[in-house]
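[job 4471] stage=fold_predict status=RUNNING
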Amino acid sequence: MTLLIAIILGLVQGLCEFLPVSSSGHLVLLQNVFGVTENSLFFAIMLHFGTLIAVVVVYRESLWGIIRAFFKLIGLLFSGKKEELKAHTASEDVWKLWLLIIATAITTAMALAFGDLIEESYQGTYLGFGFLITAIALFLMNFVGQGKHTIGETKWYKAAGIGLMQGIAILPGISRSGCTIASASYMGLKKEAAAEFSFLLSIPAILGSLVLEVPDVIREGAVGVDWLNVTIGTLVAAISGFFAIKLMIKLIVNKSLNVFAIYTLVLGILVLLDQFVFNLVFSSPLIG
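[job 4471] inference complete, writing structure tokens
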């Protein structure tokens, strides 16, 4: 892998993790185009770490509020102060924490239940269909109103529904941010709140994927890793991810996401044509 390819993949990961076009889908696509195979798992993990840095920096205040609420909750549980515990449990930061836990639990259950299918999908088998699903989800946002609820006013079962959509979006080509923001909007969250919940939800999702992939990285080893490429790729992913989040927030609040819907629709059609007709990048999914 050359330094230029590492920069391109870092840029794609950073932008596509938070823009609704599927980062995993684009990485699978580009790795097939560039023929990247060596230490690809370790490199992919480091790119995810870069995007994790980006979302933590952007939402540091909200995240810090949730962390403080968690430790205060633990302290009150052992203090015997029932009235203060009851009041704190009803606070918005604690409710955000519960909603994130519920959504993450649903996503985790799906990842564990369909692990073999997910692993197979990273060969690009369902990539074209994944992009088309993203396009449909984004187009449907045109029929959703502005939304009335903040995260603190969201019911638990709505968080479960968002977690379900995030679980589906584990498949390459299906945008995690696109599906979670769209589903949150369908369920009545204000657009800015939908974006915040989606991006906060990406933190345990990214951390979870990192933890699950560590054993594979240990088995694969880091022999032959080009640390310059890995470091530059990670930094590019973090910086581009930061600006992608800022851009996404503005687009959600002030404009539609139709441009991304059209993009993923066209990309999905092109990938399917290649898979079933031309076989320039992918072999036919019908023959492996």
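[job 4471] summary: The CA atoms of residues 193 and 228 lie 38 Å apart.
[job 4471] exit 0
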